[in-house]
Amino acid sequence: MNPAQVTFGAAVALALATAVAAIVVPRRVVVGAGTALTGAAGLAAGVAAVSGHSFSLVLPGLLPLSGVSFTLDALGGLFVAVTGGVAVAAGVYATSYGKASAVLPMFVLAMLLVPAAASVGTLLVCWELMALFSLLLVIGENRSRAEVTSAGRWYAVMTHLGFVSILCGLMVFAAHAPADSFAALREARLSPAVSATVFVLTLAGFASKAGIVPLHAWLPRAHPEAPSHVSALMSAAMVNLGVYGLVRVGFDLLGGGPRWWWLLVLALGALSAVHGILQAAMSTDLKRLLGQSTTENMGLVLVGVGAAGLFTASGNPVLAGLATAAALLHVVNHAAFKTLLFLAAGAVLHGTGTRDLDALGGLRRTMPVTTALFGVGALAASALPPGTAFVSEWLLLQALVHGLPPSGVDTAIALPVAVAAVALTAGLAVVTFVKAFGVGFLAKPRSEAAANAREVPYGMRAGMAIAALGCVVLALLPSLVLPAVAGGATTGLVTLRLTGVTGSLSPLLLTLWLVVAVVVVAAGVRGVVARRTRRDARLWDCGGGPMSARMEYTATSFAEPLQRVFDDVVQPELDVHVTHHEESRYLVRAVEFRRSVPDRVERRLYAPVLAATRAWGRAGRSLATGSVHRYLGYGFYTLCAALLLLAVTR
Amino acid sequence: MLNLWRMIRRTGRVAEPAPPAPAEQLPAAGALGGSVQIRHVDAGSCNGCEIEIGAAFGPVYDAERYGARLVASPRHADALLVTGVVTRNMAEPLLRTFDAVPAPKVVVAVGDCARNCGAFAGAYGAVGAVRDVVPVDVEIAGCPPRPEAIVDGLRKLTGR
Amino acid sequence: MTALGLAGAVVQPVLIVAGAPVLVGVMRQVRARLEGRAGPGIRQPWRDLRKLFGKERIAPRGTSEVFRVAPLVLVATTLVITVVAPFVTVASVLNPVADLFVVVALLAVGAVALALAGLDTGTAFGGMGASREVTILALVEPTLLVAILALSARVGSTNLGDVVSSMVREPSRVISPVSLLAAVALVIATVAENGRIPVDNPSTHLELTMVHEAMVLEYAGPDLALVELASAMRLSVFLGLLANLFVPWGIATTATPAALLAGVLALVLKVGVLGAALAAAEVFLAKLRLFRVPELLAGSFLLSLLAVAASYFLA
Ligand code: SF4
Predict the structure, then answer these.
(1) Is the peptide bond before B147 cis (omega within 30 degrees of 0)?
(2) Fewest 10 Å CB contacts: which of A298, B6, B46, C8?
């Protein structure tokens, strides 16, 4: 028996069983444990597939017309494994968090099935199931809140537009191929125009799922509004499938393509990375910040994918392998730390009831475990050693640096700009996560809610700990997963050596040396200091005081200098309202100051579209007056027109 | 830029030759080892003393050459340089500033006001001299004291 | 792990830990002389440190482990760089860590640790300093990375040792437009990272204009000594790298005592000259308004981007 097949089957069975069990016994423990087990089985299946045990399965009777066919190969296996891993952490967390929902295991199942789908029909069905289940989860718990319904609406519309785009793209593709299975699609000979159409259409759909600018508007709305373990699943696992789709269609089915495709991907990625992190740096909502950082990270992945495509197109397989490795490793890393961060954000929400950074602070004393785990995640996300994202960003930069000598003017411009974008993103990520951790967890509590925070139950802590463990392992020994993502792009267990180009990095040794250096310095200080005990003293408040929490820097004030720097880019909206006393204009009664940093892309791009849609809607309403006669008339004329058309064309 | 350069060339060294070091040194000077970071506290001065302190740290008297340096936080300081009579409003902050300084620490009272309330003796807003609030190690007399006197007092701390 | 690398790993940290405060002393002395002062002498920073280590340790109420560990992390990250990066010898004891990106990231880790400590105190000035520091960091990091890219692109490696030894082998590269542009960008980045004029004034007493100082207002005694030692070391590291990336001559390429001695002397000379030049330049400059600083940094970012473009097109 093929181990991948067995475990994958087990995952499907477990998910279905959990869903049924959850309907019968709606307990959190049942749903959580079942989801975690599903995830574990999925993880095992993915690992087995990556290590060479791929399998195929055709079930002709399951779906009318096209049937259902699955193939789990190495590429799909990687994404199945990532989804499974995220589901384990989220499932354990869900044993003591949120409502028991039968949809949760089904959502995980749909996400496991997508990378295994081996025909257009199967992929589209699974894709839609995934979208529907996640939509149900987003709006399921807090239906009554206005933000949730609005987020749900955004998500529903955007995800279906994306679906339509993918549908059209794959239909065009399948129409030019003998059958709709992926194997048949690989054989298809497409004219450049057709393959370009397919690529652009699917790219739009997959990019919208990955939250890539300019199709990202739903992501910072829907991800934060969902319950936190669902946020984790969406932000750490679901978005990856957009990347999966892009890689599958672009590289596997279409077999690469001309350079402009990949330049487009690269540009979208760079734009998303910078835009996402800039928005995150300004954000004061902890979960929204994390959602925006997802856009950033997916952007970085797309930079890697685009670079890989570019190098493939210019005949440089070594660098293409390196860039692919960087992109896929970043997918894995991002999944690990984003799971952790969203789960920790959920813990903060659970413990304090707020996710507004301006009202948080001081959690390190009341919620020490959550604080420590969020710290691990923040270090990983800020692309600093010894964190996870550092390794993948290092690989990405190595791929871009070694892109010299350029194979054309376009790459000579694209690669430095890409490096600049990645570098700027790295810098801003540091600000974002220093803010999230420093303002949210350190210092003094800024509100009653934060001051009275309580540490979360053990189930939630365990879920976070699993994700944190993943982060640490990935940070220290990325070589454990690199063979799965890189093929032969790197060698070595402790020290990664790039094959084909010079470059080596050893995260483990680096960490070890850092620890040794800290110990040496601490010992040295102990040796030379005259007095070892510390005297407890008041904070230095310039002799005045006592200092209140209102004197602290908040998340808004922390990001203010940066916002000034990027004033022209983010264009914050200022609103100052001064009211005067009746008697005199010179006496001010109150000053109201409001500042918001709206998403500029969204404002520029979506507002006109929405306005146009609304106008069309109004025009449509004048057609639909409610009169039955009119509707009969419409029907009659349409029929006549159709017949006429047939008569003319036949 | 060139003008500035010319001016630097023309002016040369303005620091006056160092006068002989004061005969007695404070016992704390040994622990400080020729480096004294100073936090200045204005406890209620008329700002005359401040001007002289500014002069003492200016290029002519250059108190920094003996290892004294003004710092921005009492946590960084070894010595408090207190000027003026201690007013009611500044008594508590002065105590807190003293408390904020890590040991070993010394207090220098600069000016007659700080020593014995000077011109403000008996004023309703004055709590007393500096030594009535915090222990004083060095006193520098004068209203205001001459920069030489201030430098001399500081050299008792730095031992240089 | 070669003998040369091992020698470097022993000599470099010792030299930089011992020499960094002296460098600061030299810079202060140069400034003092140009201002017409006598100056406290170049050993003054060491006197300050010795005294600070002998002082009492203070635990400000309401601070946590982050506050206590930050100075250790700050020194440790810099110490690791002094061990692995090519200052005296080209070879490194741990090649996979002597990567340019790693070094930049390690320097950033130190800065982040201090910023978190500033936030941890919960004082207005701590938060202010942290906010400003990371804002500057966010703009300096890209400059550093892109300038590095420009230098390493033609070598085909981002390993510091490789970059430096290729410069040693082909001295003509030193005066190429790529090097010059990158050098200017890196100098500005160095000034900004180390909180020197015109970005920050290390001797300011006015809290509202502070960047680096505001974060460390709460540190006292040995902790403060560590922070000061680390800032001195970081300055030396930056100047040392700057010197060796653009003027690598004298660096030891063999493990003989004579070569090592020459390497040490060359480093001391180069860093000393650079430091003195920096200090002299500071006399002529005024501190920029905080919100003008980003313009300066954006300029340096642009220069580094130009350097990359030049390296692509002139290659
Ligand atoms: S001693 Fe004289 S100069 Fe100094 S504060 Fe008192 S009155 Fe002013």
Answers:
(1) no
(2) B6
d(Cα A144, Cα A134) in Å, to the nearest integer?
A: 18
The neighbouring-strand residues paired with C60 are: A537
Residue pairs between chains A and B whose CB atoms are closer than 8 Å: 22
Number of Cα atoms under 13 Å in the Cβ half of residue A86: 37
- Tokens 């008697």 identify what position? A583
State the pLDDT confidence band at A362, using cuts at 50, 70 and 90: confident
State if residue B143 touches ligand 1 by the CB under 6 angstroms criterion: yes
Whether B65 sits inside 8 A of C39 (CB atoms) is: yes
* Interface predicted TM-score (ipTM) of this complex, two decimals: 0.94
Question: How many Å lie between the alpha carbon of C216 and the closest alpha carbon of chain B?
Answer: 9
Minimal C-alpha gap between A414 and chain C (Å)? 10
Going by DSSP bridges, is the β-strand pair C57-60/A534-537 parallel, antiparallel, or unpaired?
A: parallel
B96: closest chain A residue by CA: A543
Task: Return the amino acid letter for C127.
Answer: G
Which residues form the domain of C308? 3-313
Most confident of A134-143, B43-52, C302-311: B43-52
User: What are B3's two structure tokens?
Assistant: 């003008």
Tell me, yes or no, if A528 comes closer than 8 A to chain B by beta carbon. Answer: no
Domain annotation for chain B: domains and CATH numbers: 37-158 (3.40.50.12280)
Rounded Cα distance, A122 and A181, in Å = 9
Instruction: Give phi and psi for C49, each to the nearest 5.
Output: -65, -45
C-alpha A431/C-alpha A278 separation (Å) is 10
User: What is the reported pTM?
Assistant: 0.93
A285-344 pLDDT, tens digit each: 999 999 999 999 999 999 999 999 998 888 888 888 889 999 999 999 999 999 999 999
pLDDT band at A630 (very low <50, low <70, confident <90, very high): confident
The residue whose C-alpha atom lies closest to atom 6 belonging to ligand 1 is B113
From the list A398, A437, A528, which residue is nearest C53 (CB)? Answer: A528
The protein residue with its alpha carbon nearest to ligand 1, atom 2, reads B143
Nearest-angstrom CA–CA distance, A127 and A115: 10
User: Using the beta-carbon criterion (under 8 Å), do B72 and C217 form an inter-chain contact?
Assistant: yes
Q: Which residues pair with A592 in a beta bridge?
A: A577
Checking if the pLDDT of A481 tops 90, the result is no
Please state the atom number of ligand 1 nearest to the C-alpha of residue B84.
Answer: 5
* pLDDT digits 0-9 by tens, A75-130: 899 999 999 999 999 999 999 888 878 889 999 999 999 999 988 989 999 999 99
Domain count of the fold of chain C: 1
C149 vs A: CB within 8 A: yes
Place of tokens 């000599």: C11
